Amino acid sequence: MGFLTYIKDRVQKFLNEKNFVTDLLAMLEEKTGIKSNYIVTGTLSIFGLYVLFGYGATLLCSLVGFVYPAYYSIKAIESTDKEDDTKWLTYWVVYGVFSVAEFFSDIFLYWFPFYYVGKCIFLLWCMAPFSWNGSQVIYTRIIRPLFLKHHTAVDEIVSDLSGKAINAAENLTKEAAKVTVNHALDEGKED
After folding, report:
1. Residue 180 and residue 89 share a domain
2. pTM of whole model > 0.70?
């Protein structure tokens, strides 16, 4: 019950702030006569039912996992506080790992009932505004230990590939220059 109370308090605090959403809700409340709390509850209920039964749940889950975090990531970039930068960078690392894993398993997971509901709940947990949110837990328990164990080998591979790519680009540039010069010389002989 403590978690639901926390969420309810956060939503109520957000609805008491002055922002675009509350301005829109105030306008809707004035036009319809329906209290903004009911509008929010109804909208969230329709959203939840649509994710459960509607077509396009993939898009809705992607929007849940992207829009709010992207907005707060931009705010974090613009703030001077480093802590919020770290929080959202951690989220994006976990989101990226999840997206890659989902790409390979989506063909199987897609058929599970309520998969998109679970995915939305997972993404909401990853971006939740408390210290034990999903991105912090997954990063500290899974991703960070793997990174620390393998980052030296990965750095060597990346360095090796970068060196090879630079050499290939230099060789390609030299060959292109030779072909261009030879072509120009051939054109000059024909004139």
Report:
1. yes
2. no
